[in-house]
Amino acid sequence: MSEQGGSVKPGNGDEGTKPQKVQSAAATPSGEPASRSGQRDRRVGWGRYLVAPRPPGLLAGGVPPIEASALFTLLEEDPNVEPVAQVRPSRSRGLGAIAEPHAACPPVAVVMMPEERARALAANPQVVVEIDQPLTYTPASWASGGLGTATPVSDPALTVPLAEPGRLSVRVQGADGDTAAGAHVWAVGTGATAHAVTGPDGRAELTLAADTPATLKALYVRPASDYWPLRLDDPRLRDGAETTVELTALAQTFEGFPGQAVTGWGWQAMRLHQIPPTYRGHGIKIALIDSGVDITHPDLKDTVHTGYDFTRLSGERTWHTDATGHGTWCAGIIAAADNRTGITGIAAEAELHALKLFPGGHVSDLLEAVDYCITHHVDIAQLNLAYPLPSQLVAWKLLDAHTAGIAVIAPAGDTAGPLTQPAALPHVLAVGALAHTGTQPTGGTALLQPPWPGLYPAPFTATGPGVDLAAPGTAIITTGPGGGYTPADGTAIAASHVTGLAALLLAHHDHLRTHATPRTPARTSQLYTLLRTACRPVPAADPARTGAGIADAPTALGIATTWQYSPAADQPFTAAGYRQP
Question: Model confidence over 58-67: pLDDT tens digits?
């Protein structure tokens, strides 16, 4: 959370893709955003932009304001502009009535136009013009966390490709010989990185553009579910030979899993196991802005109540499917059902809304998703997607969400560097990730563990004055697509722990309970303050990476001295960082 947002000058962004013109993306009478056409064509040099009237209070002296309707009419009549959609906040439903009489974010037109036309419009002081940036996750740098500092990031301009690309065949299996289908395999070389996914036979065939198997620096395997990931540094593979990689099953680490539930090290680190079992977050509405959620998972089918697909790439509503698995990972940490198997979410009785914005989403879709949160009485919005350049329109829209009493929680970013957008914006609680020396190493954490035992900042976590607090974000067992379970890393995983705790505060804290306290900016600010002041500093850690420290659940809930738990709950972590109940 930083002190101010930013604006964007128009430039080349997502050029050449132009959806067919539609009239509006405003909310329908049912409260859902209207769908957009999926038909597209191409115009060389055209990009996708957001155009909006500058709010009157921000105009220079003597510059008259322009009405949104007049601006949109001018855009429709401009032969060098192709309107795509309009993002207009609803004025008829839910919490929109609180935020919109003095809404900070004006109505926005989504258009296709040449860069020259965008620059000309941006020169008009009455108008705000931004690139409609595509949304993405913050990629973990190979050099700074994803695979550890030993693997440099290569510059393609300096890569020397082979005349005949090398080939690498990898077979991925468990200790019992069972093949691991759907596993992602990365081969990191001196000049490039190759990637493939294992088929039903557990085999992946990789093309090495600038390396031979013998020159590879690292081999990384991330299974789809049910196994721990594996990293091999300096694997010294033989040319022409198939490489067999054997993974450790989660059931080998946790006896009886998933039939017997496990309690994660994140729960213990945040002392979530020491709060009353009746604290379940009942009645709290959480919007998870991510890649959708696989609602066929037995731990999620009864907790994810509704959602919306803002990408509409296929013309169908597919919020209940998850192309990446990322949304399903976070949903399990927040709200997995307590069914005595697998895992249990921190706020198992909260109402989770799955808002799908990836793959294919843009900043304009994010604006619509925030409007959804306002009009659907959402208490907490976890915003897991990012965009590269600051957006003043997003800053204004999130200010509207804050005015409506919505807490916005975002991962600080898996950059090992500056905070991502929108985590750096005001009124957004930015969460960094922590690792623990007692857990199963994943990714590059094994290379970068400190000499002291206990918590430490995850190698990939962002750094900067905008980090508010930190939470467990490596080797976290959670729900995966297809009904299985998987270890997950990332600042979004850490943010999910904080979102779950925030839901417990809103449901059960004497001064925040939703049924007694209206959704207001003051309530949201008090929630942020309680979370930050309840943190324990992380020993020997840079506050620029961990903020106030790790959130302590009993302290935040005000029950640290009023609730006693079994001494067995405080036993040290096991070798894998988990304790079976």
Answer: 888 889 999 9
Q: Compute the distance between CA of residue 97 and CA of residue 14 in angstroms, rounded to an integer.
A: 34
Gap between the Cα atoms of 436 and 208, Å rounded: 34
Residue 516 or residue 250, greater confidence: 250
In 3D space, the residue among 385, 386, 387, 327 whose CA is nearest the CA of residue 353 turns out to be: 327
- Residue 350 has φ and ψ, to the nearest 5°, of -75, 160
Q: Of 88, 87, 85, 79, whose CA–CA distance to 113 is shortest?
A: 79
Rounded Cα gap, residues 137 and 177, in angstroms: 34
Question: Counting Cβ atoms within 10 Å, is residue 520 exposed (0-12), middle (13-18) or buried (19+)?
Answer: middle
From CA 510, how far away is CA 331, in angstroms rounded? 26
256 three-state secondary structure:
coil
- Count Cβ atoms below 10 Å from residue 155 Cβ, excluding itself: 8
d(C-alpha 451, C-alpha 19), whole Å: 54
CB-count burial class (<10 Å; 0-12, 13-18, 19+) for 438: middle
For 215, the token pair is 């020159």
The structure's pTM equals 0.87
Closest listed residue to residue 109, CA positions, set 123, 125, 101, 121: 121
Q: Which ranges constitute the DSSP H helices of 201-354?
A: 250-253, 265-269, 326-335
Helix (H, G, I), strand (E, B) or coil at 234: coil
Q: Express each pLDDT in 94-136 by its tens digit.
A: 454 554 557 889 999 999 999 999 999 999 999 999 999 999 9
Two structure tokens written together for 422? 């929108």
- CB-based burial label for 135 (10 Å; 0-12, 13-18, 19+): buried
β-strand pairing of 407-411 with 428-436? parallel
Q: Decide: residue 258, CB within 10 A, 0-12 exposed, 13-18 middle, 19+ buried.
A: buried
Q: Is the dihedral of CA 523, 424, 493, 33 positive or negative?
A: positive
Segment 137-191, tens digit of pLDDT: 974 443 333 333 334 456 777 788 888 898 999 999 998 899 999 999 999 998 7
Q: What angle do CA 453, 459, 462 make, to 5 degrees?
A: 125
Only one residue has tokens 């008829």, namely 92
